[in-house]
Recover the amino acids of this structure.
């Protein structure tokens, strides 16, 4: 039925545009370095007209935006990001997700190598500058103008000075001006080359009326450099005012070097968090052997066309998805599905691109190329998951939004407090304390605390065949206390077989010698139009017996009851006892048989032909061995396990008993599954629903977390919050265990990030000086700041070794 949307002339254009379906796009963003950058870009995007949701990811350097195309556009969103001072480009429409990930990995490796080089040169230059500055400190002490409790040079000068005089006598023969200008030249080079990124980004942030980590580093090192430059150019001015014309070039250089060292270590650790993605991308071979006109051609994978015949030899990776047409082999799909054992493949079986052919040759027809391939979908899903945000991140976001301005304020207060309450310490002591506050403050750790854990956890899950579709699902999984399992294809194999055929007494078929085949033929003819697994079992048996199926007419599927149609002129009903009651078909003659079959775990299909009961076909499905193991584990984890099925109570109880489930909800229509989930939630339960992702879509959506079972290339990736690439329930308990471990790491990361700043900033300001005379050097502060970020990322990397079995 068509529907016309009418908009009155008085409505504005925005109202008309609002009926357009929202779109989602991921835009690469360059230049972000800390949580403040991430928070600023996200707030700006979220404030644009037409933007429904914006999630900016510091780890992946991208922004995922859901927007109304009637109110804004991709180019407008890109311009918005550029307007914040960061780089952005419109994603190429023809680029594949595999190519995008490869390009991202190359760029990350290039960035790491560049940071490593600059950090190494800067730290080396810093230590050289530290040694070169020793004669200047000797001169200051000789003049009686020694640095007071020098927080910028924390080594023991009195012990080091004699050693340097013996080993480097030439340095002490240099003139004071020569040393000053040498240090000035070295610092200028390091700050302009290695430190340039901090100053350009700080300046850009200032132009856009914001501040970030670069602002703090630029102010701290810039102040030290400018003061030292003034002392070098006009030392007489300082002496005339009773202030030592000391220079702090070595501190500025070392701060830049140590911060860059932290950035390099952080970049390397970030690369390790994305190792699962990188391994997936590397699964696809570069070339494939294609058979065209019986000629073998070695072609790039990009040149393969739908329907091409691909030849795969032993030891080669399968280049694309497809269906086997000849050959027999065992294929290792572990990197895609987590299944450790090879899977036998023969004609008509599906193969997945990226899996490893082991001991036989296969020929198959290429299917699902490019973005539609299983491997590309897994990579896309994993990238989206790693770019998503867990709700717990909002705590860090709120703090990051005000963090840098607050630190700037604390630095000003620190300087003023030293001048007012400790004037005897001198202006340089106040100056050094303020610089230390600027340098030690670290918004990066807060920005990395949650995203790094999400990246590692989703990657770890993917390696086990568990695709978790984002940080929100990952966080909700932690609270699950009830797991609802669909029966068919979830607990059981999903390939039921006909076990019994029972004819009704006084049936018109009763006295025929081939009565069983005749009834089977009629039932299969009608069930042939149905997609239900039980219908497939009947049709499969009829074909195995070589029965010719007549054509069914006026087929009607009655959801939750069965099917109705006309076969060879007779109205035929096939379904449950409720369908028989609907059409007033008496079932008394076979009730005893039905109960016996139900107690044996068999599902009875009632058949009525021409208004009379004809018989029962009993169908049973085999319980997976892995299901029984998984259910025992769920019980051991304290989870409540419930089986949900449309089967009658007797059959459902028998299957549940064999599977090890104590609680059953039977006789449930598809629409009733949602109500069953709601009832459990009404009891205060946090519910996970496990189903096939197609027939159970409403119940999966109603559950707190929906988990879909998939098998091989036939993956229902868009349904549910978690996709289990193996048709195996052991992934359910593993997913919950992974979530609990991840949330524990997230909380540790956030605790460390907050406590570090809460303790570090007051200590840097000199809070311990009145108590024990302890002051912190800006050099040590910069090292602490670098290590705080690295420690958060390293803690997240522990999730790669998390034991889930």
């Amino acid at each position: 039925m068509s529907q016309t949307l009418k908009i009155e002339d008085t409505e504005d254009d925005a109202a008309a545009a609002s009926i357009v379906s929202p779109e989602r796009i991921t835009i690469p963003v360059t230049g972000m370095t800390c949580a403040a950058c991430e928070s600023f870009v996200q707030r700006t995007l979220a404030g644009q007209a037409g933007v429904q949701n914006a999630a900016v990811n510091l780890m992946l350097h991208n922004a995922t935006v859901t927007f109304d195309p009637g109110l804004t556009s991709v180019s407008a969103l890109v311009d918005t990001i550029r307007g914040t001072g960061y780089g952005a480009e419109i994603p190429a429409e023809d680029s594949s997700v595999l190519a995008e990930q490869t390009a991202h990995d190359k760029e990350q490796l290039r960035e790491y190598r560049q940071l490593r080089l600059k950090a190494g040169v800067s730290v080396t230059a810093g230590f050289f500058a530290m040694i070169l500055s020793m004669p200047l400190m000797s001169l200051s002490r000789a003049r009686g103008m020694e640095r007071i409790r020098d927080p910028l040079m924390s080594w023991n000068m009195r012990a080091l000075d004699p050693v340097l005089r013996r080993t480097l006598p030439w340095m002490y023969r240099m003139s004071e001006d020569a040393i000053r200008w040498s240090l000035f030249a070295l610092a200028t080079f390091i700050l302009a080359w290695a430190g340039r990124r901090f100053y350009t980004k700080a300046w850009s942030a200032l132009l856009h009326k914001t501040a970030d980590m670069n602002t703090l580093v630029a102010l701290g090192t810039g102040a030290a450099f400018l003061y030292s430059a003034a002392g070098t150019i006009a030392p007489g001015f300082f002496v005339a005012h009773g202030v030592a014309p000391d220079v702090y070039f070595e501190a500025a250089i070392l701060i830049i070097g140590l911060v860059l060292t932290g950035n390099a270590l952080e970049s390397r650790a970030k690369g390790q968090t994305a190792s699962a993605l990188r391994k997936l991308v590397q699964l696809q071979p570069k070339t494939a052997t294609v058979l065209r006109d019986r000629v073998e051609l070695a072609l790039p994978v990009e040149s393969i066309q739908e329907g091409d015949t691909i030849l795969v030899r032993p030891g080669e990776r399968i280049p694309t998805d497809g269906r086997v047409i000849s050959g027999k082999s065992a294929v290792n799909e572990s990197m895609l599905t987590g299944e450790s054992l090879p899977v036998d493949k023969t004609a008509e079986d599906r193969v997945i691109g990226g899996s490893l052919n082991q001991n036989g040759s296969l020929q198959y027809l290429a299917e699902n190329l490019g973005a539609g391939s299983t491997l590309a979908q897994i990579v896309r899903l994993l990238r989206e998951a790693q770019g998503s945000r867990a709700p717990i991140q909002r705590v860090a976001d709120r703090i990051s939004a005000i963090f840098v301005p607050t630190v700037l304020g604390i630095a000003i207060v620190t300087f003023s407090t030293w001048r007012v309450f400790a004037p005897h310490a001198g202006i340089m002591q106040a100056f050094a304390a303020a610089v230390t506050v600027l340098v030690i403050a670290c918004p990066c750790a807060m920005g990395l605390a949650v995203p790094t854990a999400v990246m590692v956890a989703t990657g770890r899950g993917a390696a086990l065949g568990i695709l978790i579709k984002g940080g929100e699902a990952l966080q909700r999984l932690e609270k699950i206390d009830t797991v609802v399992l669909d029966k068919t294809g979830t607990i059981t194999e999903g390939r039921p077989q006909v076990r019994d055929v029972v004819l009704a007494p006084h049936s018109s078929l009763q006295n025929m010698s081939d009565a069983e085949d005749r009834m089977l033929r009629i039932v299969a003819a009608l069930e042939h139009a149905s997609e239900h697994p039980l219908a497939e079992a009947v049709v499969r048996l009829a074909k195995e017996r070589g029965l010719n199926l007549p054509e069914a007419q006026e087929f009607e599927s009655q959801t939750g009851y069965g099917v109705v149609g006309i076969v060879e002129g007779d109205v035929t009903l096939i379904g449950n006892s409720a369908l028989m009651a609907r059409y007033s078909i008496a079932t008394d003659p076979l009730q005893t048989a039905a109960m016996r079959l139900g107690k044996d775990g068999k599902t009875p299909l009632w058949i009525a032909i021409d208004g009379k009961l004809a018989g029962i076909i009993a169908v049973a499905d085999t319980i997976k061995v892995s299901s029984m193991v998984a259910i025992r584990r769920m019980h051991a984890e304290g989870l409540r396990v419930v089986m949900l099925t449309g089967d009658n109570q007797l059959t459902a109880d028998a299957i549940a008993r064999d599977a090890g489930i104590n609680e059953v909800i039977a006789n449930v229509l598809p629409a009733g599954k949602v109500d069953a989930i709601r009832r459990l939630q009404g009891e205060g339960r946090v519910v996970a629903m496990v189903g096939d992702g197609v027939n159970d879509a409403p119940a999966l959506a109603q559950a707190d977390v929906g988990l879909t079972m998939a098998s091989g290339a036939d993956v229902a990736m868009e349904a549910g919050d978690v996709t289990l690439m193996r048709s195996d329930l052991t992934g359910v308990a593993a997913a919950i265990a992974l979530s609990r471990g991840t949330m524990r790491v997230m909380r540790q990361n956030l605790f460390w990030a907050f406590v570090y700043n809460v303790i570090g900033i007051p200590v840097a300001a000199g809070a311990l000086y009145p108590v024990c005379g302890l002051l912190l050097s800006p050099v040590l502060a910069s090292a602490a700041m670098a290590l705080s970020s690295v420690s958060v990322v390293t803690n997240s990397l522990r999730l790669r070794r998390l034991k889930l079995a």
About this structure: The chain is about 50% helix and 15% strand.
